[in-house]
Amino acid sequence: MYNLDDTIAAIATPPGKGAIGVIRISGSEAIEIADKIFSAKSGRKLSEMKGYSVSLGEIEIEESPVRDTCIALLFRAPKSYTGEDVVEFQCHGGPIVVEALLRGILDIGARMAWAGEFTKRAFLNGRISLTEAEGIAEIISSASKSGQRAAYSQSKGSLHRETESIKDTILSCQASIAAWIDFPEEDVEEVEPEELSKKIDSIEKSLKKLISSYELISFFRLFSILSIFLLSSSG
């Protein structure tokens, strides 16, 4: 089992050649590790800079002939995607440069991130809700525009806000009924059956809407898979 206290690193761009390659580091030692391989044109170390800083400089790995000009983006905890100190290097996208940079970062003390670990840390550190994390996974795996739109809405917290609103309404009803039953002699506002019925109807409608939206997303996902299968089988 991997340790969530480790500083992790991973390539954040697809494998192969490209104009830009991105390597991301997250954890308590992210800035310290970055300072060992990055030299800013300004002469300042990343550890001396504020969060949300961007710096142009050079990457140089000891015991490696690879050098490259790159941009370093600095995000300090807790105001980062993961809620930890994060450094992101944007270098030229050739696989030799990107892979050498990642190896150098791992040799200095970072650990290779597991699949989804950056988002897992964002969830555990309270940066995103569970439904937002699931929405991000859906965006990555979506195979249709409609599915992507639904997943994007979920990733921005729409589902979390809806479920929280439903939960608050249920708790409010529960508290009103409990207070009315437990303290009949006190000056507690009487629960009106008609008003309570309206709230319950509202909860029911909201839950049905959520179920319908889930079924719609599931349909988009299944339709996309079937479309790909049928196209690959045709001819």
Structure write-up:
The protein is of the alpha+beta class and 235 residues long. Helix 4 (130-141) runs antiparallel to helix 5 (145-155) and helix 5 (145-155) crosses helix 7 (193-233). It folds into two domains: 8-124, 2-Layer Sandwich (Gyrase A, domain 2), CATH 3.30.1360; 130-233, tRNA modification GTPase MnmE domain 2 (Four Helix Bundle (Hemerythrin (Met), subunit A)), CATH 1.20.120.430. The chain has helices at residues 30-37, 95-108, 117-124, 130-141, 145-155, 158-182, 193-233; strands at 8-11, 20-26, 38-40, 53-60, 67-75, 86-92, 111-112.
Order of helices and strands: EEHEEEEHEHHHHH
Please give the order of strands in the largest beta sheet.
3-4-5-6-2-1-7
| CATH class identity of the largest domain | Alpha Beta
**Rough shape?**
elongated
Low-confidence runs (pLDDT<50, min 5 residues)?
224-235
Give the fraction of residues assigned to helices: 40-55%
Q: Count of DSSP helices?
A: 7
CATH superfamily of the largest domain: Probable tRNA modification gtpase trme, domain 1
CATH architecture of the largest domain: 2-Layer Sandwich
Which terms would index this structure?
235 residues, alpha+beta, Gyrase A, domain 2, Four Helix Bundle (Hemerythrin (Met), subunit A), 2 domains, seven-stranded mixed sheet, 7 strands, disordered C terminus
Q: Summarize this, please?
A:
By secondary structure, the chain is of the alpha+beta class. The chain has two domains: 8-124, Probable tRNA modification gtpase trme, domain 1 (Gyrase A, domain 2); 130-233, tRNA modification GTPase MnmE domain 2 (Four Helix Bundle (Hemerythrin (Met), subunit A)), CATH 1.20.120.430.
